[in-house]
């Protein structure tokens, strides 16, 4: 199946809304934080719809062959919803919980607080020593470089079947 077939298989009037986008990305149409964030990133015109061109241009960082640094930057930009240069601790916790759930691992909120605290706590302290409620890109990059974190936290930003789609239709993004 080519990229165009995947898009056309769920698009109405040549554009995708958020539910259709989730199905095109391999989900069941139910929204998640990740799908909402990715949808807003793909929706370059901010009109709640994604054209085929928007869809194709947004796929690159999701390929398994995308450079690690590109996934780190892409994931940070997605989670920095206010474009402030920081990721809120609550957003990070929610995304990591979704990432683990995607892999069949389920944790309570208390367990997630402990996981996030253990991962970012030592790096992310305010001058008074209390945990910060947000992290900057450098802190995110450092966290992603930790053994294990890059495998779990960034795996959700990879579509393994995308490489096959891209290879099969590299010369032409539309099926003839």
What would you say this structure looks like, in words?
With 176 residues, the chain is mainly alpha-helical. The protein has ten helices and four strands. The strands form two sheets. Strands 1-2 form a two-stranded antiparallel sheet. α5 crosses α8 (137-145). The longest helix is centred in the middle third of the chain and has 14 residues, at 89-102. It starts with a helix and ends in an 8-residue tail after the last helix. Mean pLDDT is 74; it is low at 126-130 and 165-176.
How does the SSE layout of this entry go?
Layout: H1 3-8, E1 15-16, H2 18-24, H3 33-42, E2 50-51, H4 52-59, H5 68-79, E3 86-88, H6 89-102, H7 109-120, E4 134-136, H8 137-145, H9 149-153, H10 160-168
Antiparallel strand pairs: 1-2, 3-4
């Amino acid at each position: 199946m080519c990229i165009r077939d995947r898009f056309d298989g769920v698009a109405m009037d040549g554009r995708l809304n958020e539910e259709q986008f989730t199905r095109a990305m391999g989900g069941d149409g139910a929204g998640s934080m990740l799908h909402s964030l990715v949808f807003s990133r793909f929706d370059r015109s901010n009109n709640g719809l994604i054209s085929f061109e928007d869809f194709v241009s947004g796929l690159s960082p999701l390929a398994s062959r995308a450079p690690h640094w590109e996934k780190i930057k892409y994931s940070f930009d997605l989670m920095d919803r206010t474009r402030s240069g920081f990721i809120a601790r609550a957003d990070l916790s929610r995304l990591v919980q979704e990432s683990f759930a995607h892999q069949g691992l389920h944790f309570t909120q208390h367990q997630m607080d402990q996981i996030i605290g253990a991962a970012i706590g030592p790096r992310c302290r305010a001058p008074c020593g209390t945990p910060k409620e947000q992290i900057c890109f450098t802190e995110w990059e450092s966290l992603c470089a930790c053994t294990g974190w890059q495998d779990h936290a960034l795996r959700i930003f990879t579509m393994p079947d995308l490489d096959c789609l891209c290879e099969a239709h590299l010369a032409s993004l539309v099926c003839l």
